[in-house]
Design brief:
Layout lengths: L4 H17 L5 H4 L11 H23 L15 H20 L2
């Protein structure tokens, strides 16, 4: 498949946005000092470890499914698409947690 002009433009825009947003990840660039003693709450740690455990369980279930690579029995068996859905549900949980007041 040949690279079209819009693909190149999209890559360029993405590179500019990533280059603009990346310094936010490095507090020393902005002169901020890390807060000593600042830790995530038990609730956030529970969400983190719950999401990791949930995705791991789904991956192990898919690995144990004999039809995991079959497209014909995808409706009644665990397939790799289920693992992708599990990761997308993690994104949903993170987004809902982030925007909950």
């Amino acid at each position: 498949m040949a690279c079209q002009y819009n693909h190149g433009v999209r890559v360029g825009v993405d590179a500019l946005v990533a280059g603009h947003d990346q310094p936010v990840s490095f507090p020393h660039v902005w002169g901020f000092r890390p807060s000593i003693g600042n830790r995530p709450s038990r609730f956030i740690l529970g969400i983190f470890f719950g999401c990791v455990a949930g995705v791991a369980v789904v991956i192990f279930v898919v690995l144990g499914s004999p039809q995991r690579d079959s497209a014909e029995d995808a409706a009644g068996a665990w397939v790799w698409l289920d693992a992708i859905y599990a990761v997308s549900y993690v994104k949903l949980v993170v987004t809902l947690t982030m925007y909950t007041p």
